[in-house]
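[AMINO ACID CHAIN]
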Amino acid sequence: MVEVDRPNRQRRRRKGKSDPEDAISAARAAFSGDACGAAKTQDGNVEAIRVIRVARLSARRARTQALNQMRSLISTAPDPIREELRHLSVARLLERVASFRPGTKTDVVSLTKWTLRTLARRAIELEDEVKAFDAILEPLVAETAPELVSTLGIGTDSATIHTASGVRPPSPICAAPGRSTPRAASTNVIASTEAGTVKPTQRSGTS
């Protein structure tokens, strides 16, 4: 199986966007050797990292959303709550608000405290989820891309993004001895629909 990265731009400009034309272009690119990359694998560590990363990203977004909602509520909260919480760091804010005891009253102060406590506890739970995901991702990324992780300035987060983009196995088409990969900038592929063949021709240079 050969993976074709993108449709031929010149053909798209001439004939416009068309799924049948894109399919024909992909087949011609694979047949002529212009496309020689093997398809991405969907097993092993890379696929496991991609799956975990999906859930981790959603947990981080939800935690950020909960914190933003807390800040918004604090800015419009009654004066006693606002003055107590507005200058706290995230860690101290979550610790303080999570310990609120609003009681059963239905006044604005009590319900504001109850809402803030709910959001704080949600953010803490999501933070624990992210840490659990990181505990699984770190050894997986280190095993899959040890050179990338050991690079100065590249942490698990950045390495996970690069690793989850996929790993292609070596392509026997590109690596075949005595075969040179045609250059897209200097090669025209002329297809003969009658003979069912594809003939590469080099452009002649002009001075």
